[in-house]
Design goal:
Elements (H helix, E strand, L loop, with lengths): L1 H24 L6 H10 L28 H9 L48 H12 L7 H25 L4 H20 L10 H18 L7 H14 L5 H7 L3 H5 L1 H14 L1
Amino acid sequence: MAQARAAKQERAGHVHGDAHGDAHGDAHGHSHRDSHRDTNDHTHDHTHSHSHSHTHSHRQLAACWSMCPEFEIIDRQVAKDVSVFEATEATQALGPGRLVIDPARAVKKFRRSAAGSYELAEDLRPPAVLLETTAHLLGLLRGGGAEQDAALYGFIRDRTRAVRTDLTLQGARDGRAVRIHELVVRYLIAAGHLLCEHPRALFSPQQNLEQLNGCLSALREMYKHVRAPAARVAEFHAYAILLALDRPSAATAVAALGPAVLAAPPVQAALDAVAAFQQ
């Protein structure tokens, strides 16, 4: 039992390490001014998800340089809507209703918006900030009990949905947007394994799978427009094939691949798994 848990924690550590390295190697390599310019220069791109499609006129400016907009921090403190993962160290043990939000740790919540809705620029985070936010979220991964693991999963799942929404509202589909989606896909896959034995009241495999499919679908669409390392492209296409293992869509996922990706070892391994499953 202890060895199995240690192995799971090691796999979670790999997810954290990837995010930390990418944020420092990419997001920190761009100034906030550059990231703002980059966000709004990609006016020729299309949004990465048809479920959140926006025309050129709907692309929004982003001017929030922190993980959480200032107004939301105030609003959620008043409403006592504060997660323990963003509370001050002095109040973390006090329990719900008594937590004080730490502006340096607060992360924008996911909010379902109506079609055609508009966010103020100061509430929208540019891609560089969103990559740093993703690294921060994955950096929270650590060992704990079943309830702690599930609570942290719920927090990360919600906040990464907000990250993806901010990208969509800007029509952002650059290398940083691609990397964010890659990291979230890896996290959701890892979470599906690490939490699979948790009570369903704490973790829903179906909801996790829905988020994974949506994030992976958006990522594969981005690969059509944004150059990414061949090894990573093959890795995530292989995940898509495996997720469609028992569905006709597996053939569709394969048909869309170019010869180089199709010949890559991860994709070939996924195809072998499909063939074995169908026998």
